[in-house]
Design goal:
about 240 residues, Spore Coat Polysaccharide Biosynthesis Protein SpsA, Chain A, seven-stranded mixed β-sheet, 9 strands, globular
């Protein structure tokens, strides 16, 4: 039975984190380790993490890439699962991760979709189709692989160890999950599991500036990997790996 660590980067997310950790503490397959990375919060984020049984580590460098990487480095599990402070995971989330990766031992990671618990029914549908759907399609085309979704994925510890040294910890304007996806070699198998669903907040859509910032970070992340990781090069590398 694999040891599973869960990593949650958080900044000033005490209220949402309490709900997230409560859900994680009710898993049908309990986490062996939960790590909350306090990214210089000014609220009770760290205190909430400790009260609900998580190991709290700190990361003073700004940005989710630094915070998430700090958590992955601290994790001791064979599998490192990742969600965000606003994620509400179903009771079978870790059980599904374990089952899926056990069924595909060649896979290095698994990811899945989300629904938006604080949007209207129409807003939830639009966010799933136009935001998440567009991300998986466009990023998948650029990567020649399934991209990781930061609110809902798991990877093997060996994968993280193979890419950790290359992840830039001092660039706060990267999308950490998209950047990590670029660092997975074409040909390595990443799974998309439709049954691996979490509920997340609609905070990306609360303002135009928030959406603009996320879009800018997407371009910054792609620029970090160009020209060596241009799509045609990744698709060619994938074809060579599978031949």
């Amino acid at each position: 039975m694999p040891f599973i660590s869960v990593v949650i980067p958080a900044k000033d997310d005490a209220v949402m984190l309490e709900r997230c950790l409560t859900a994680l503490n009710e898993q049908s397959r309990p986490a062996d380790e939960i790590i909350v990375v306090d990214n210089a919060s000014t609220d009770a984020t760290a205190a909430v993490g400790r009260r609900l049984g998580a190991t709290v580590v700190t990361e003073s460098r700004p940005g989710i890439t630094a915070a998430a990487s700090r958590g992955y480095d601290a994790a001791t599990g064979d599998i490192i699962a990742r969600c965000d402070a606003d994620s509400l995971v179903p009771t079978g989330w870790l059980e599904q991760i374990e089952r899926t990766l056990a069924s595909h031992p060649e896979a290095v990671a698994v990811t899945g979709p989300a629904t938006f618990y604080d949007l209207s029914r129409l807003g939830d549908w639009l966010a799933r189709v136009l935001y998440l759907g567009a991300y998986f399609l466009s990023a998948g085309a650029a990567l020649a692989s399934i991209p990781l979704f930061g609110s809902n994925f798991a990877m093997t510890r060996d994968l993280w160890r193979s890419v950790s040294a290359a992840v830039p910890r001092d660039e706060p304007e990267l999308h950490d999950d998209f950047d990590l996806s670029y660092r997975i070699r074409p040909g390595l198998r990443v799974l998309y599991d439709r049954a691996l669903v979490v509920r997340i907040s609609g905070r990306p859509f609360r303002s135009f500036s928030a959406m603009r910032r996320r879009t800018r970070r997407g371009w910054v992340t792609m620029r970090e990997h160009f020209p060596s990781q241009l799509p045609h090069r990744r698709w060619y590398a994938r074809a060579r790996a599978s031949s």
